Fold this protein.
Amino acid sequence: MKKQILTTLLLSFLAITSIHAQGGKIKPTEVVFIQGGNTADETFGTTKPDMILVARSITNTHWSRTGFLKFKIPQDIKSLNSVDLNISIKVYKNAEQPDLKFSLNVQAVPENTWSKTTITWNNAPKVGEVLGNVILDQSQDDKLSKLTIKLDAKAVDLLLKKSKDREITLALTNNISTALGSIVSKDAFLTIE
């Protein structure tokens, strides 16, 4: 009887480990947005709602916002053949320009030393190369929509190899300054194969 129980537990462990080694969902360990302008020295990681605001990331105004997501990649994931970022997003409507599109970039961030309790617009790490991009319509129903963004797996793998602690940071940016902004749910996750 004990042998059967041990065998069952071992098989269950192996099945879970096998699923995990193949990828699965990897949730971020830290999620935050930063904001420019007169709030460029404020932290928003613990004071704002469970959303990431993204808009006009290349300017430094009160409406400039960039999101940061930090992920800890498990040791058992050895290679990255496919990497997807899964998010829920809403692009705010602009009644005066209903055909205007929103460009969302996912960018590499080579530095992982930031914390959601200390990061601000003024001390944020520099963002690097674009790993993925989508062009989105304005949300017509005013609800979040699920979205999967395929990332450059080789570039993400290189980012991971440069990390000492298997942490990677991704930035959500809008580098085309338009009259649109977006809100992204903090329930984002990576799927890796």
In short: DSSP finds two helices and eleven strands in the chain. Residues 25-192 form a domain with the Jelly Rolls fold (CATH 2.60.120.260).
